[in-house]
Structures are given as structure tokens and as C-alpha cells.
Amino acid sequence: MSGPRRLAELTWPEVAATASRSVLAVPVGSTEQHGPHLPFTVDTDIAVALAERLACARDWIVLAPPVPYGSSGEHAGFPGTLSIGREATELLLTELVRSADAFAAVALVSGHGGNAVPLRRAVARLLSEGRTVHFWEPSGDPADSHAGRAETSAMLALRPAAVHRDRAAAGERRPLSALLPALRRSGLRAVTPNGVLGDPAGAGAADGQRRLEAWTEDLVATSSTWTPRRPAAAADDQSWDTI
Fold first, then answer.
1. In a domain, 68, yes or no
2. What confidence category does residue 229 fall into, taking pLDDT thresholds of 50, 70 and 90?
3. pLDDT by residue (tens digit) across 139-159?
4. Within a domain: residue 7?
5. Which domain holds residue 116?
6. Residue 232 lies in a domain
7. How far apart are CA 57 and CA 73, in angstroms?
8. What value does the mean pLDDT take over residues 234-238?
9. Quick one: which of 122, 147, 153, 123 has its CA closest to 215?
10. Residues sharing a CB contact under 8 Å with residue 147, sequence separation 6 or more, in sequence order
11. What residues are paired with 49 via a beta bridge?
12. Is the residue at 236 inside a domain?
């Protein structure tokens, strides 16, 4: 694997030379509470890590800076959570993808389940406009959906210094589907006072690395259907394989 091509490190002429045969990968996260032991940036950190790995595996990916805010209204009962809501998230992502029309396509790599509805709405609208846009999010255990073992392990692999293991405690462990009515009615704090859905017990860096590798494998496999078509005008371009 080579290092990722980062939009933050490129100039516009460099982008112009390859954009028509590149896919822009945008990590989409959130800034919301993750229990008493994890930082507010968990979803963004994981989305960035996975998008970076994708960009290393696919040389036609350009990695965009992340979108660190999203729809997190259900976490409003916990100080520090910053949410722009569903409508703003949908509009932000719609306009962002529209502005990236120099690229062959845009791939939205989401790390926050609460963004799923506005993301899908944005993608549907963009597709109806004839744009090429993709959406991916990691799978997980519905009884371990927030700040539990999976996310704690992932953060121990990515940013161990940011994890306060001595503060980790179990939260509500029923599946998310059983909690949704109360969560939508009263917010997450009414369901789990410490902000955790799951149990971080048993979390570890090795477990986190395995999860990140599994998510990466799925993301890279999914991306095989995103490969940009080579423009006809570039048929004799010898730089195609040396971007």
C-alpha cells in the first residue's frame, strides 16, 4: 500500500490533472459524547482512519478533510455534544458533493449511525440529479452501538491516550431497536445515564485492530464497484497508472 493522496496536501493544478479519474473520499463523523471514558471525536476518528486505509489501498482515491459535525440531537442531554441536526447535515453533504463535480465520484465514509438518515436522503437527492455518489458505514452489534466494547477497542488501537479506562462502565445493553421509541421521545440520557449503549468491558487494542481491519476489508471490497472509468480522451495518457 502507498500513502494516501490527501486533498489537504494538494494544489488545484495537481487535483485538476487527475480529478476526472479519481474518487473523493469524505470521512463523515460527529462531535458527541461517548460515555465517561471516550472523547467526543470517536466517530470522526474512526471514519478518518477507515477512509485513510481506503486511500492507501486504492490509488484512485483522494482523501478529503473530514466533516466533524453531524446529526447528534439525541445526545443533547450531555454537555459538549455539538449537533447541526438532520436537515443541516443533509444540506451540508448535498452541497459538498455538488461542489466536488471535478471528481469522477464522491464516497461518503460515515462513522456515525445518527447520520444515516440525512446521508441517505442526500445520496438519493444527488443520484436523482445524475451525480455519482457512494455511501458506506461500518456494521456492528445492535447491543453494542455506542461507546461500548467495539468503539472503545477501536480507540485503544487508534488513540490509546484518549481512552480513560478507569472511567469505563457498562451502560444500557438492550439492542438499539428496543430503545428507539424512548430514545426518540426523550433522548439518550433518559435511556442511559452515562451515555453508553453496550459494555466496554474486555475492550483492547488488539480487538480494536481486528475490528478496524474487518471494516477496512469490507470498505475496500465495496469500493471495487466505485472504480472511476478512464476518460476516452485519456486513452493514450501514459500517466494513468502513475498519478
1. yes
2. confident
3. 999 999 999 999 999 999 999
4. no
5. 14-224
6. no
7. 35
8. 43
9. 153
10. 34, 35, 37, 38, 42, 171, 195, 196, 197, 198, 200
11. none
12. no
| Crossing angle of the two packed helices 149-158 and 205-223, in degrees rounded to 10 | 90
pLDDT computed for residue 1 by the predictor:
56
Residue with grid cell 475496500, as numbered in its chain: 220
Write the pLDDT tens digit of every residue in 218-228: 999 999 999 98
Q: How many domains does the chain have?
A: 1
Read off the C-alpha cell for 9. 496536501
CATH code of 135's domain: 3.40.50.10310
